């Protein structure tokens, strides 16, 4: 005990010595992830590598604006965000540097990475409905949401939101633009109210009987299941979660991810950080902390809410395809009045 305390003091005084400060390895991280548990993830990286993370957290668009206006002088090494549509937007701006990393290529399934940005966790976009409000057979697929028998029953967040744009992009990829537009119009015709609020608002509206059916990302459901507020856990007892399209393409999967910036001043540290994010320990932070699934196969997680969801068939559409149809998805939603 006595030994470890004096050892600690030596380490502290060394690291605060003025001459050594300049050699401190740093990584500048621009993150649009908004999850409190991420701090633990970054601390774990620093503990393992000695690289100190300087983190700037802000809204997606503000970070992108900042990187653009900083130009070649940007201190940003890594840009992290959620949603394939947003990652695609960053890519279209030409911000990411191509990376060849045997570790990233071995650990991340091919459909969940591109040449310059990588997914680190996944979430599914699922259907939720109020127990007893509709028949289970009426809400088995995304296509069902456009069926006139659900008229006046659907709550939704905005069609401009990346989560819905990415879902739409997957429908375009699988079925083509004409069918995708027909679907969007059908869903709009079934709205119980104009789109408003986030995923959690839709889930709670379904539980409160304001509408019967909605779409939500799985981590919002897991968060409510694990909530410390009894009323949120009670809301979850009023709804049923459906894995869509289990006889077809499988449930639509979205991701959180990121990449190294072309102008990164600390490229070596940046690649180390991306490789760290696919380590078993980092993957567990994603799963246990933010209720997302690891991208790396076989990582042992301990998250009762995720485990309670059980196994399901996930759509294996490459994330690059979601990116490709992102702009088209917005045009179709606009035409269909899905605002
Ligand atoms: Fe979210």
Helix and strand element order:
HHEHEHEHHEHHHEHHEEHHEHHH
Tally the beta strands: 8
Mind telling me the CATH superfamily name of the largest domain? Periplasmic binding protein-like II
Task: Look at the structure and give the mean pLDDT.
Answer: 91
Q: What is the end-to-end distance? A: 62 Å
CATH architecture of the largest domain: 3-Layer(aba) Sandwich
Shape: globular
Bound molecule kinds, no repeats: fe (iii) ion
Q: Supply the CATH class of the largest domain.
A: Alpha Beta
Question: Count of helices?
Answer: 16
Biggest β-sheet description: 8 strands, mixed
**Structural class of the secondary elements?**
alpha+beta
The percentage of residues in β strands lies in 5-15%
Q: Please bin the fraction of helical residues.
A: 40-55%
CATH topology of the largest domain: D-Maltodextrin-Binding Protein, domain 2
> What is the C-alpha radius of gyration, as a whole number of Å?
22 Å
Number of domains in the coordinates?
2
Query: In terms of per-residue confidence, which ranges show pLDDT below 50 for 5 or more consecutive residues?
Result: 1-20
Description:
The chain is α+β, with helices and mostly antiparallel strands and 339 residues long. The chain has two domains: 24-121 and 255-302, Periplasmic binding protein-like II (D-Maltodextrin-Binding Protein, domain 2, 3-Layer(aba) Sandwich); 123-252 and 315-336, Periplasmic binding protein-like II (D-Maltodextrin-Binding Protein, domain 2), CATH 3.40.190. The protein has helices spanning 2-15, 18-21, 38-49, 60-70, 84-92, 102-107, 162-175, 177-189, 199-207, 218-225, 230-237, 267-277, 280-290, 304-309, 319-324, 326-336; strands at 26-31, 52-57, 78-82, 118-130, 213-217, 239-242, 252-260, 293-294. Strands 1, 2, 3, 4, 5, 6, 7 and 8 form an eight-stranded mixed beta sheet that branches. α3 (38-49) runs antiparallel to α13, α7 crosses α16 (326-336) and α8 packs across α16 (326-336).
């Amino acid at each position: 005990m006595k030994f470890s305390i004096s050892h600690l003091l030596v380490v502290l005084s060394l690291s605060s010595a003025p001459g050594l400060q300049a050699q401190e390895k740093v990584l500048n991280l621009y993150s649009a992830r908004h999850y409190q548990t991420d701090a633990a993830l970054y601390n774990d990286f620093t503990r393992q590598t000695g690289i100190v993370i300087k983190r700037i957290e802000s809204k997606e668009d503000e970070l992108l604006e900042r990187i653009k206006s900083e130009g070649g002088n940007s201190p940003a090494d890594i840009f992290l965000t959620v949603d394939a549509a947003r990652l695609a937007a960053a890519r279209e701006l030409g911000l990411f540097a191509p990376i060849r990393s045997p570790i990233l290529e071995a650990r991340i399934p091919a459909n969940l990475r591109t040449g310059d940005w990588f997914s680190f966790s996944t979430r599914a976009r699922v259907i939720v409905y109020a127990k007893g409000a509709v028949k289970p057979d009426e809400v088995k697929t995304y296509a069902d949401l456009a069926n006139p028998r659900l008229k006046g029953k659907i709550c939704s967040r905005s069609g401009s939101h990346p989560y819905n744009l990415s879902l739409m992009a997957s429908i375009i990829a699988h079925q083509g633009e004409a069918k995708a537009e027909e679907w969007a119009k059908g869903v709009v015709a079934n709205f119980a109210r104009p789109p408003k609020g986030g995923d959690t608002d839709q889930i709670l509206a379904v539980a409160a009987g304001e509408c019967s059916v909605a779409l939500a990302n799985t981590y919002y459901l897991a968060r409510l299941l694990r909530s410390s507020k009894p009323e949120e856990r009670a809301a979850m007892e009023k709804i049923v979660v459906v894995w869509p399209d289990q006889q077809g393409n499988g449930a639509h999967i979205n991701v959180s991810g990121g990449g190294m910036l072309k102008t990164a001043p600390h490229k070596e540290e940046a690649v180390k950080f991306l490789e760290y994010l696919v380590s078993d320990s980092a993957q567990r932070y994603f799963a246990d902390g933010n209720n997302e699934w690891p991208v790396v196969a076989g990582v042992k997680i301990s998250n009762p809410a995720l485990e309670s969801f059980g196994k399901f068939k996930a759509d294996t559409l490459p994330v690059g395809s979601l990116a490709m149809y992102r702009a088209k998805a917005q045009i179709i939603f606009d035409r269909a009045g899905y605002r």
